[in-house]
Amino acid sequence: MKSLTRLDSSIETLRNIACQGGFVVRRRWGDKVKMTESARKGSSLYKTGSIGEEVRRIQERLRKSEIYRGPIDGLFCGGTEAAVKIFQGMEGLGIDGVVGPRTWKALFNEDCPSSSLAGRPLEYRCLALTGSFETGAALPDCFAGLSGDFDGQGISFGVLQWNFGQGSLQPLLKRMCSEYQETAEALFHQNYGELISALNGSRSVQMAFARSIQNPNRRTVNEPWRGMFKALGRSDEFQKIEVDAANALFNAARRLCSDYGLWSERGMALMFDIKSQNGSISSAVKARINSGFQGLPGSLSDEERELERLKIVANCRAEAAKARWVEDVRARKLCIANGGGKVHGI
Predict the structure, then answer these.
(1) In the sheet that 156-157 helps form, which strands lie side by side, from edge to edge?
(2) Are the C-beta atoms of 157 and 169 separated by less than 8 Å?
(3) Over the stretch 28-46, which tens digit does the pLDDT of each residue have?
């Protein structure tokens, strides 16, 4: 049976983000967890599907050695793996395309760090996972999803696409400018005053501002505003604001976990994604889920039972989606439940 220690779901392939984020089936979602000394000192492995700043460093180092010619995007894909294998062969290391402690030491002459997601609060990791599905982007860009007025909402931004039209984005931006003014001013430069004026105006003023900074035909945000908003979403300060703004969904996900007897962090990740993407679980779906639970054999271990319950929830909720989206929703939910799989054919 595949180890349930970590959920292998990446941001680019949607198979490995939670592996780095540490969605552990053995770990209960209410537990207070601290990073172990071994994690801090280099127990991580970086391989196909891994994402983040550590992968970006690997790519930069391999490009400097003229081994890697792909993008520096923090996504560990086939090109990065091939370059790692070449490097390992040149250094007389075991050739497996995985950057573990020995390969990292050869690359940087330092101990291998833990993932940039390791040690983050569960809420942050859940939001990053859902953001990866929604944006298809690696950390930190999964917090910086940005779209224009294609849906009449002016500008939508962040993991949960808070927007001007519904008035959900303005409070986040106002908090950023109030609590982290120095950072906000640095990010928006000479345009900071224009942003403040819009935020202090009426809803019609705010919508006019949102539409004035984007292409009316393509409905995409123009530069330099696009780059400034992207930088905002990458900042630690605004990511904290996003996590706080999603608090109601986190609480709802916790209630769902309690309702269905799900105790693992992976269960919390699944329920948060359901609340974010699908909104709810109807009474009819709940009945099918509970019926599936009752059919599970009594011989299963706690972890095996949890995994089977996650798959039942994933399948039942997917089958309640509109016909054209059933398999898409199923793939996404089972990717979380199983700890691997394909989403959008990837």
Answers:
(1) 146-147, 156-157, 162-163
(2) yes
(3) 666 654 433 333 343 467 8
